[in-house]
Amino acid sequence: MKSRPFKQVDVFTATAYRGNPLAVVIDGTGLDDAAMQRFAQWTNLSETTFLLPPTEPTADYRVRIFTPGGELPFAGHPTIGTCHAWLQAGGKPKVAGLVVQQCGAGLVPLRREGDRLAFAAPPLKRSAPSPALLAKVAGALGLKAQQIVAAQVLDNGPVWFGLLVEDADAVLALQPDHRMLKELGVKAGVAGVPAAVDISPLIGRSNREARAFGNRKAAEYDDGAKIDLEVRAFAEPIGVQEDPVTGSLNASLAEWLIADGHMPERYLAAQGQCLGRAGRVYIERDAEGKIWVGGDAVTCVDGNVTL
Predict the structure, then answer these.
(1) pLDDT-derived band of residue 272, with 50, 70 and 90 as boundaries?
(2) Whole-angstrom Cα distance, residue 284 to residue 268?
(3) Does 47 participate in catalysis according to the annotation?
C-alpha cells in the first residue's frame, strides 16, 4: 500500500454538495481489480475512478470506473469529474481545448466551455422493449400504462430502460419497488417535461406525444435555472437505489428524445431533486449531429489516500 493523490469531486453542479459526488484516485497504477473494487465499496459512492496511463496513442489518460457493485465501461458523471480532477492535478491535453479519455467503452472526447466540461455522447444502440417487460418495469416503478408516453432500451455502454412519462410531477412522485427492479435486472431512467415547458413548435405531428407536450413554458427552479426535462435514475442491480445525477443516462435520453422529436436540440435537464440535490445537465446537438453532455464540477476533498 502507498499514499496516492486523491480528490472527491461534486459533478453536474457549480455549488458544492448539490450534485453527484465522485471519488478519484489520481494514480491508480499497481492496483489490481480486487483492490479497486474494494475501495469503491468502501467509499460507498455511486462511482469511484482510477486514473492510469493511456494505452491508446491519442488518449490523454485512461480511467477505470467502479460502482459499489462492479466495473462500468463508461459513465457520464465520472467522465466529467475525472477530467476535472486530472486537469486540476496538472494534466495537459495533447490537443489544446480537447481532452481525450480512454475507458472501457473506447475513446471519449471532452471539450472545455469556460469552467464547464462536456463529453461527446458515445454511440447509442436502442430498441423497443417487449410489452411484457415494459409492463413489469412500469409495475415496479408504480406507473400506469396511460402515464407512459414512450419507452426504449438504451445502450451506450451502460444499459438503461428509458421511460418518457406524461410530466415531471409523475417523475418526482415515483416510489419504486427497488427489490423488483433488481430481480428484473433493470436500471430504469425516467424522464418527464415540467408542466410549464413549451416544446409544441418542435413536434409537427398531431399524435399522442404532441398532445402530451403542448402549451408549456420553461419551468423556473429556485436557483433560477429554467428546466426543460426532469430525470431520475434507479440502479439497484448495481448497488445504487437512486443515482443523484447520471451522465450516461442523460446522454442516451438526449440521443433518443431529440432524434424522435420529443426534445429540442438544446435543453437543460434537472436531476437529484428527490435526494436534496440540484443537478444540472446541459445538452446540445451540434451541427454535425453529435450530442454533447455538459456539466460543472467542484472539488470538495483534496489530499491523499493510502491504497
Answers:
(1) very high
(2) 9
(3) yes
Share of the chain above pLDDT 90, in %: 83
Are the C-beta atoms of residues 168 and 133 closer than 8 Å to each other? no
103/288 Cα distance (integer angstroms): 24
Cell of 19: 450534485
Q: Return d(Cα 89, Cα 142) in angstroms, integer.
A: 45
Task: Judge whether residue 223 has pLDDT over 90.
Answer: no
243-266 as b/e, with b when 16 or more CB fall inside 10 Å?
bbbbbbbbbbbbbbbbeebbbbee
The C-alpha cell at 238 is 448495481
Question: How buried is residue 306: exposed, middle or buried, by Cβ count under 10 Å (0-12/13-18/19+)?
Answer: exposed
pTM of the predicted model, to two decimals? Answer: 0.89
Measure the CA–CA gap between 68 and 209, rounded to whole angstroms. 38
pLDDT of residue 200: 52
**Pairing status of strand 219-220 against strand 188-192:** unpaired
Which residue type does 116 have? R
Residue type, 26: I
Q: Mind listing the pLDDT tens digit for each residue in 36-72?
A: 999 999 999 989 999 999 999 999 999 999 988 899 9
Asked if residue 186 has pLDDT above 70, the reply is yes
* C-alpha–C-alpha distance, residues 23 and 215, integer Å: 42
Active-site hit among 47, 230, 242, 255: 47
